[in-house]
């Protein structure tokens, strides 16, 4: 009895484990998918076998194994302890993770599920959230190969009270990638030629993997010729030979080039394309200011809009040439330092103004269509797609230009005479009034100021009379009808009368003859006095004129 009492007292004195703590137990049997575990203190509990398995694996548990479990309750309705292996693992994992988080150490885990915005990761008992942006350094379309795979993670954030853990796989990859980049970059030198694999293609170039580190191959460094898009010459996965152009030790950025491994075609441009030589090229690009023409791969020249056509001014280059069109161009200038070639398209054809001047010297009659009517004249379309201008003053001999131009309309076919061709200024002056010659010049060609001519009266007016000489009309004012004031009466003349007059002026500009009967009479009087005597000698004027008249008979 004394021994029994001692044992009973000893059992009362032993501390019973606290509920909510982790205790050690021994597997005493496995049945119906559960493990029966003796946690001591005369307590046994049951735990589902799946709580002993890692995600995606079978539980490896045998009778006699010692395990740690979480004591939730010392006794349930069946008199069994309520225990959990999963909660024990979680508590254990949280302790371990908190230490790793504090020391910024990596932790091992496995992705086992997908949730909104990312994935769930088992960290040996604790479940963490892996954001989609933290899976890899680049977006991952298919995370299947990563599921269930044990791998390292970096703990970014954790809150034990709320049970939140956020981890990153990307941080691990970037760290290892940075180490790898540093090692690869240390073995690279500027100017070195290396092989790489095209990993990605963008609008501005391609990223090439040099064995753990990416370099940028810019589109302008792919070829000496113009490359509109990198996909023209590269494909993803292709192995290419590139040259290291520049290495930025601070940012670890590497610039690559392909064209640098080829001969520069510009070294031979001046020799292959001498000035003023004509070559056939292909239009590669068209802009508002001109068109680029490829003379050979890697060598392009610009045909400025002003050098595209002799006749088409202020027109978009796209209306003269088209992309991929083959054209003949002349080399106008080469600047090898700036890698520029100036080309001319119009220079491969003869200047149409020169051609016109040779075929149509001054005085030649031409025919054309009225292209435009302006306030200062007509523009006439001529051969060679050029225009000539008829100034207002060259429309008519008899009408004012402003009046004469009213008779013309756009698209009318007209004839004119070439009066001047200025090839340098690209101007052609035409005259319509010159057709048939200059009637005024022909009419007055034999007369001059002071000449006596016979005219015909064509009209009687109050202020004088209208007369015609060789088809050219003139007007004699009342004051010039006679030396005698009493005879200065227009009504004493009749239409059709022939009258001798003296020419007082010849005005080629206004195309008018100044005529006077009075001036003729005065001139005749002076001549008679000179020949037949002077009134000072006692002879009367009547005697002198009478003698002159008799002499005339």
From TrEMBL:
One protein family per Pfam: S1
Keywords: Repeat, Ribonucleoprotein, Ribosomal protein, RNA-binding
GO CC terms of this entry: cytosolic small ribosomal subunit
Domain S1 motif: 20-86, 104-170, 191-259, 276-346, 363-433, 450-518
InterPro entries: NA-bd_OB-fold, Ribos_protein_bS1-like, Ribosomal_bS1, Ribosomal_protein_S1-like, S1_domain
UniProt keyword Glycosyltransferase, yes or no: no
Keyword Ribosomal protein: yes
GO aspect biological process, one term: translation
GO molecular function: mRNA binding; structural constituent of ribosome
Functional note: Binds mRNA; thus facilitating recognition of the initiation point. It is needed to translate mRNA with a short Shine-Dalgarno (SD) purine-rich sequence.
Similarity comment: Belongs to the bacterial ribosomal protein bS1 family.
Protein's UniProt name: 30S ribosomal protein S1
Record organism: Parasedimentitalea maritima
Record lineage: Bacteria, Pseudomonadati, Pseudomonadota, Alphaproteobacteria, Rhodobacterales
């Amino acid at each position: 009895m004394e021994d029994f009492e001692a044992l009973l007292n000893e059992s009362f004195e032993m501390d019973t484990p606290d509920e909510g703590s982790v205790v050690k137990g021994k597997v005493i049997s496995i049945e119906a998918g559960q493990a029966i575990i003796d946690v001591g203190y005369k307590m046994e509990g049951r735990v589902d076998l799946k709580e002993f398995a890692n995600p995606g694996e079978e539980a490896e548990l045998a009778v006699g194994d010692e395990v740690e479990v979480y004591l939730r309750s010392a006794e349930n309705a069946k008199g069994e302890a309520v225990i959990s292996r999963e909660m024990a693992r979680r508590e254990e994992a949280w302790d371990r993770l908190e230490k790793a988080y504090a020391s910024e150490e990596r932790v091992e885990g496995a992705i086992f599920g997908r949730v909104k915005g990312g994935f769930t990761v088992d960290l040996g008992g604790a479940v963490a959230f892996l954001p989609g942006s933290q899976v890899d350094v680049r977006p991952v379309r298919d995370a299947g190969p990563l599921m269930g795979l044990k791998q390292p993670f970096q703990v970014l954030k954790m809150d034990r009270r709320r049970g939140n853990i956020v981890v990153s796989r990307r941080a691990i990859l970037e760290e290892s990638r940075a180490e790898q980049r540093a090692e690869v970059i240390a073995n690279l030198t500027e100017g070195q030629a290396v092989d790489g694999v095209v990993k990605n293609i963008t609008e501005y170039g391609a990223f090439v993997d040099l064995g753990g580190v990416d370099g940028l191959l810019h589109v302008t460094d792919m070829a000496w010729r113009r490359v509109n898009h990198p996909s023209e010459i590269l494909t993803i996965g292709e192995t290419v030979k590139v040259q290291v152009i520049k290495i930025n030790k601070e940012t670890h950025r590497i610039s690559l080039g392909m064209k640098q491994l080829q001969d520069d075609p510009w070294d031979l441009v001046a020799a292959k394309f001498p000035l003023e030589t004509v070559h056939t090229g292909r239009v590669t690009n068209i802009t508002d200011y001109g068109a680029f023409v490829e003379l050979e791969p890697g060598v392009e020249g610009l045909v400025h809009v002003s050098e595209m056509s002799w006749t088409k001014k202020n027109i978009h280059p796209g209306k003269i040439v088209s992309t991929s069109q083959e054209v003949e161009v002349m080399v106008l200038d080469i600047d090898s330092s700036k890698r520029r070639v100036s080309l001319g398209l119009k220079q491969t054809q003869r200047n149409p103004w020169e051609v016109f001047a040779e075929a149509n010297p001054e005085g030649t009659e031409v025919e054309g269509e009225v292209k435009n009517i302006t306030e200062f004249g007509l523009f006439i379309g001529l051969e060679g797609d050029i225009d000539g201008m008829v100034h207002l003053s060259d429309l008519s001999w008899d009408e004012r230009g402003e009046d004469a131009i009213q008779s013309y309309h756009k698209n009318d076919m007209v004839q004119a005479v070439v009066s001047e061709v200025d090839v340098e200024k690209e101007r052609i002056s035409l005259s319509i009034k010159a057709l048939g010659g200059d009637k005024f010049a022909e009419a007055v060609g034999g007369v001059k100021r002071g000449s006596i001519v016979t005219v015909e009266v064509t009209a009687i007016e109050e202020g004088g009379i209208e007369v015609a000489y060789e088809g050219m009309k003139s007007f004699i004012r009342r004051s010039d009808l006679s030396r005698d004031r009493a005879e200065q009466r227009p009504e004493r003349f009749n239409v059709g009368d022939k009258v001798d007059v003296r020419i007082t002026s010849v005005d080629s500009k206004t195309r008018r003859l100044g005529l006077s009967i009075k001036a003729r009479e005065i001139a005749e009087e002076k001549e008679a006095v000179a020949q037949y005597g002077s009134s000072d000698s006692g002879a009367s004027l009547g005697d002198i004129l009478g003698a002159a008249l008799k002499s005339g008979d």
